[in-house]
Every structure is written in C-alpha cells, then in structure tokens.
Amino acid sequence: MELAEALTRRVVVLDGGMSTALEVAGHDLSDELWSARLLLTDPDALRSAHLAYFRAGAEVAITASYQASFPGFARRGISESETARLLRSSVELARSAASDVDGPRWVAASVGPYGAVLADGSEYRGRYGLSRQELIDFHRPRLEELCAAGPDVLAVETVPDVDEAEAVLEVVRGSGVPAWLSYSVRGNRTCAGQPLEEAFEVVAGVAEVIAVGVNCCAPEDVAGAVAVAREVTGLPVVVYPNSGERWDARDRSWTGDGTGFAAQAGQWADGGARLVGGCCRTGPDAIAVLAKGLATRS
C-alpha cells in the first residue's frame, strides 16, 4: 500500500530521533556530520536503530541523511561518487531494517535544511543569506541521489524558513517521489519568523506533497500548527515534535522535562494529524508508548 493511501485510512506512526537512539546505544555524535558520520563508519548501527524503532511500533523510518550533503562530506575529503553512494545507502539501510519486521513499513528519505550542514544551530534560525538559486543548487544533488534510491517518501524536514521551503519544493516538483514538508517552528511562526499560514501555502501546485506539518519543535506548538495546516492546505498533517526538553545550541545540552510527550498525541490525531512521531530526545521507548496509545484509540 502507498503511504498516501494509508493516510486516508488511519494515523501512521513515525519513528523518533535517530540521534537519540544512537546515543542510547553508546555512540558519540559530537561531530559536524552528526549521525550521518555513521553512514561512513558504522552503517550497521544505523540499521539497528531503524530496527529498534520498527520493533517499538514505528511504521515509517526516517533515514540518517539529515546532515548528509556533498559539501559536508567533501570537507572530510570524501569524493562526490562516494557521497552519492552514502546518500543512497541511507535509504537502503532503512529498507533492510524494514524487511526484518512484519506489516507495512515505509522509508522516508530525510532532506534536512541547509543550516544543518553548518552544524551551528542555523536550522533553528534560517535566513542564511543565500539566494534561492544557491539553495536550489545545494539541495538538488542530494535530492536526486535520494530519489534514485527509491524511498517511499521524501521527508523535507526541520525547514526554518519559507524561502528554503520554496527552493526545496522547486527540486521536488516533477520528481514523481511523494514528499512531506515539515517546518521547525516557535509558536505560530517558522523559526525565521514567518506566519504558518504563509509557510504552508507554498505547497500549492506541488503534486508530490502528500502531507505538511511541523517537527523538531515544542509539543505545545503542535496543536495550533495542525489546525493551520489543515485549514490552509486540506492535506494530511505530519507532526513529530521533540520530547519537551529544549536544546541550548550555545552549551550543546538539553534542559527541561520530556515525560509528557506521548500523552498529547491523541489530541494531535483528533485535530487531523495523520503522521505522528517524535524528534529530538524521543527514543524507541517513547515511540512504543506513542504507538500503543494511538493503537488503543483506533
């Protein structure tokens, strides 16, 4: 079954934070490439993380390509051909993990924002000072490789800025690969400060987009975003917020309480969310609670 069809019938459970699962397993991710480094050094660890989420009840695995890019790998002396292989392998690893579990499973190829490659917290600000064409030129090569690997959907995620969303969608348009667009937000605005009504309007006319929403945000920002997304686009909504803890980019640490994350998922589903999962600080245990709660409601 295609993912888009499944969304017309029920809520589909996403996985949680790849970095969270890897850190719990003992991997050091203090690196500019973050979890994408393991595409090169320890791909089995990524497959194991995907499998842990599938076994916890996730139906969609988001690949470890969020921070993977041609410029980022080039800084490590990695060739363009090897970078292309690594990008494709991110999809193959998730697909391999899916083969170890029963039931429908889908692979979402992560397309992170330009700011993620800078590894300085820019994905929470946007406004990089790049032209639209420069953003298109950055995203196009890796998007083409990810599409060629055959994912079920592109996860255009943690986008802080309407300008970048428009640039990525320019590449997505005509690809024939389904995609969702998910912004990082604060309150009812993107991280760059644009109203969500304006942000969601950019998907109009892009046939590949099957869902819109938010991720990597505070749980309390989700319900309002779901309502706006539904009103503006009429599409299924995707939500996968952080646990409730907050990231301090300067100190590179998390603060706050993340114990109530899964309890709010029913409210999001009632509001129209059809793809529901977690982002930073939500590991397999949190997704297991989330999946169980949503299954009880259906």
Automatic annotation (TrEMBL):
GO molecular function, one term: S-adenosylmethionine-homocysteine S-methyltransferase activity
Stored Gene3D superfamilies: Homocysteine-binding-like domain (3.20.20.330)
Keyword set, alphabetical order: Metal-binding, Methyltransferase, Transferase, Zinc
Species of origin: Lentzea waywayandensis
Protein name: S-methylmethionine:homocysteine methyltransferase
Stretches assigned to the Hcy-binding domain: 1-294
Record-listed Zn(2+) binding positions: 216, 279-280
Any single Pfam family the record assigns to this protein: S-methyl_trans
One record GO biological process: methylation
Cofactor(s) required for function per UniProt: Zn(2+)
Keyword Cell inner membrane (UniProt): no
Keyword Transferase recorded: yes
Cofactor note: Binds 1 zinc ion per subunit.
